[in-house]
Design a protein that fits this description.
Strand order of the largest sheet: 4-3-2-1-5
CATH class of the largest domain: Alpha Beta
Helix content: 25-40%
Strand content: 25-35%
Largest sheet: 5 strands, mixed
Structural class: alpha+beta
Radius of gyration: 22 Å
Distance between the termini: 43 Å
Length: 365
């Protein structure tokens, strides 16, 4: 699938939404939706929900709208004009002209937006973009391999006495070297692994064990993963807990069969916690869920009744105090494909739900 074919497919999906909602246009400006529609473009300056360039799709045309600051980069590096988006810009100090441009391009005013309260179509767009195309899956797997190598090669360079800041710096540098942007980077040393589910790095020095992970993005697609390194072998108790934690993770991935209601997959994970004697741990942290153009499209809870799609990204992140299991997968009917996986780390094989998974062992330094 070429980029033009991918764009054509996505435009057809937006025009289906327009038809269903009786709209004459859809305007996307969120960072995730822009990346999806532009096939990997970046319309932002800083990380957040909203970007600085919007894309307007009508029944037969496509437009890009931004201030004059963003226009050169959108044309030169996101190739919007080459992709068929007619560009319209306004002077940076006159932001009200954005609305005027939209009104001139869609005189009826019947425009759906992926933000705001009026004619909001974000949920419909998200439902479409969570079903990844063949081209997106190919990009995702390439990105995941690069991210896995980046974090695991950084882990091999950890030495006693390094601070969490230093470790995070190595991870982020390796990610940036292969084009991955940091959305979050978490590092915990020793007792901080047991105290915090979301350990932002600090000046604490590592003596025995390190947890490292986070969310990183390239071409709009977000991967998430967690890895561990230890100076010396783990205790038998901690080793067994890590394997148990990974089995819960694999149970959730195996349960994520397209056509299944999301909260039903979550229930299977909860049951595995209880079966293995860790029922109380389920309540101590969210379990993750679908991933793709956002760090999580949903944090799945028992109120999420959406159905799992074919070709959908997933990153479950079950945790037991002191351990966590987290990698990004593509789920398809009868198939699970690891996006992030152990590349430089030893592999642990786990079978669950008829699937065989390769999960990362703890790196022994």
């Amino acid at each position: 699938m070429t980029k033009q074919e991918e764009l054509k497919f996505k435009l057809s999906k937006l025009r289906d939404i327009m038809s269903d909602r009786k709209l004459d246009g859809i305007y996307v400006k969120r960072q995730d939706d822009f990346a999806w529609l532009s096939c990997g473009g970046r319309n932002y300056v800083g990380v957040g929900d909203m970007g600085n360039c919007g894309l307007l799709v009508t029944g037969d045309k496509c437009y890009a709208v931004s201030n004059n600051i963003e226009q050169p980069r959108m044309i030169d590096e996101n190739n919007l004009e080459d992709m068929g988006f007619e560009y319209h810009s306004f002077v940076w100090y006159n932001g009200s002209q954005e609305a005027d441009i939209l009104s001139s391009l869609v005189p009826s005013g019947k425009i759906g937006f992926d933000y705001g309260g009026k004619d909001n179509v974000f949920s419909e767009i998200k439902a479409v973009r969570m079903d990844l195309t063949e081209a997106e899956i190919e990009r995702y797997i390439t990105i995941g391999k690069a991210a896995s190598e980046a974090i695991e090669s950084a882990a091999h360079l950890i030495r006693k006495g390094m601070t969490e800041y230093e470790i995070a710096g190595r991870i982020i540098k390796n990610m940036e070297d292969c084009g991955l942007e940091e959305l979050s980077c978490m590092v915990a040393a020793d007792e901080r692994i047991f105290k915090y589910r979301h350990p932002l790095p600090t000046s604490k020095c590592v003596e025995k064990r390190v947890q490292m992970g986070g969310n990183f993005r390239r071409d709009g697609l977000v991967i998430c993963l967690t890895r561990y390194a230890s100076f010396g072998p783990l205790s038998e108790e901690l080793e067994n807990q890590m394997k148990t934690n990974q089995l819960i993770d694999c149970t959730l991935i195996a349960a994520s069969e397209p056509g299944t209601v999301l909260c039903d997959a979550l229930l299977k994970g909860k049951a595995k916690y209880e079966e293995l004697g860790y029922g109380d741990e389920f309540n101590k942290h969210h379990q993750g869920g679908p991933i793709g153009y956002a760090g999580r499209d949903y944090r799945v809870d028992f109120g999420v009744k959406d159905t799992i799609k074919d070709h959908q990204g997933f990153c479950w992140n079950p945790s037991i105090t002191g351990t966590k299991s987290e990698d990004t997968y593509i789920v398809e009917k009868g198939k699970r494909t690891a996006v992030t996986k152990p590349v430089l780390f030893d592999k642990v094989k786990i079978e669950s739900g008829g699937f065989c998974f390769e999960r990362p062992a703890t790196l022994i330094l």
